[in-house]
Amino acid sequence: MTVQVSRSSKFMTLERHINEGEHLHPQATGQYSGLLKGLSLAAKLVWREVTKAGLVNILGTTDRMNISGDVIKKLDEFADQTIYRMMDHLGYLCVMASEENEDLLHIPDDYPSGKYVLLFDPLDGSGNIDADVTIGSIFSLYQRVTSSGKPTLRDVLQPGNRQVGAGYILYGPSMMFVYCTGHGVHGFTFDPSVGEFLLSHENIRIPAQGSIYSMNEGNYGGWDPAMQRYSRWIKETDPATGRPYSSRYIGSLVADVHRTLLYGGIYCYPGDSKNPGGKLRLMYENNPLAFIVEHAGGAATNGSERTLDIQPASLHERAPFFVGSRENIRIVTEFLNGTRKE
Ligand code: AHG
Ligand code: MN
Ligand code: MN
Question: Is any ligand 1 atom within 6 A of the Cβ of residue 124?
Answer without folding.
Answer: yes
